[in-house]
């Protein structure tokens, strides 16, 4: 019984750790003018990807080599830096329409880039033999809740910072992308 409780507690801590990147990225996103429905959709999408990516990692854990895992981290880091740089650029040039917005394909790319680290965690979980369903549900719930919290907090900060909030949000995205690339 104690082993199950210990595994559950460690899975909760792992889920929170994986969700913290969703929080920091969502903090930057929340500084854009997003409606509450959009915030809810973004959080749910990020949560679903935090379930899907480790599930794929668990299934493919024994097949995929470490080199392919490093390539997905590279792609995700570059994507976050690109989105953040575009946000910073559009803050200085108000005539430029945003290239990547958190709707449609932009939302899918965002959720994918945020959940890449959970893919590599899934690779290791597939080998260790943890309770897969429990781990996936905890990953999805923690990342959804943390993403919502980040975006709601970002909305409040946007009201305080005004025009500078988009620059700050883009800087957060760029910083997190650089952390993934050079981490």
From TrEMBL:
<keyword id="KW-0406">Ion transport</keyword>
<feature type="transmembrane region" description="Helical">
    <location>
        <begin position="133"/>
        <end position="154"/>
    </location>
</feature>
<comment type="similarity">
    <text>Belongs to the MntP (TC 9.B.29) family.</text>
</comment>
<dbReference type="InterPro" id="IPR022929">
    <property type="entry name" value="Put_MntP"/>
</dbReference>
<dbReference type="InterPro" id="IPR003810">
    <property type="entry name" value="Mntp/YtaF"/>
</dbReference>
<keyword id="KW-1003">Cell membrane</keyword>
<feature type="transmembrane region" description="Helical">
    <location>
        <begin position="6"/>
        <end position="27"/>
    </location>
</feature>
<dbReference type="GO" id="GO:0005886">
    <property type="term" value="C:plasma membrane"/>
</dbReference>
<feature type="transmembrane region" description="Helical">
    <location>
        <begin position="104"/>
        <end position="127"/>
    </location>
</feature>
<keyword id="KW-0813">Transport</keyword>
<feature type="transmembrane region" description="Helical">
    <location>
        <begin position="74"/>
        <end position="92"/>
    </location>
</feature>
<feature type="transmembrane region" description="Helical">
    <location>
        <begin position="39"/>
        <end position="62"/>
    </location>
</feature>
<keyword id="KW-0472">Membrane</keyword>
<dbReference type="GO" id="GO:0005384">
    <property type="term" value="F:manganese ion transmembrane transporter activity"/>
</dbReference>
<dbReference type="Pfam" id="PF02659">
    <property type="entry name" value="Mntp"/>
</dbReference>
<protein>
    <recommendedName>
        <fullName>Putative manganese efflux pump MntP</fullName>
    </recommendedName>
</protein>
<keyword id="KW-0812">Transmembrane</keyword>
<comment type="function">
    <text>Probably functions as a manganese efflux pump.</text>
</comment>
<keyword id="KW-0464">Manganese</keyword>
<feature type="transmembrane region" description="Helical">
    <location>
        <begin position="161"/>
        <end position="182"/>
    </location>
</feature>
<keyword id="KW-1133">Transmembrane helix</keyword>
